[in-house]
Predict the 3D structure of the following.
Amino acid sequence: MSAMVQVAIAGDVTEAEEIQELLRVAGIESELTTLDDEGLGVLVPEDKVEVSQDAIEALTEDDAVIPDS
C-alpha cells in the first residue's frame, strides 16, 4: 500500500467532505486528518498526488468562474 500524502488543507468539515467527494468522483481514495488549529488535512496515496492536485485545481477554477446573478 502507498504512503498517504497531504494534498490539501480544508478549513472545516464541509470543505473537507467536498474535496473528498471530488476525489471520489475522480476515482481517488482519500482520508482526512486533524491538523493542529489549521483545520483538516486531505490525504491521498502517494502515487495519486499529481492527479489529485489537478482535480482539486479544477474545482477551484470552477468556483472562481461562477457568474454574479
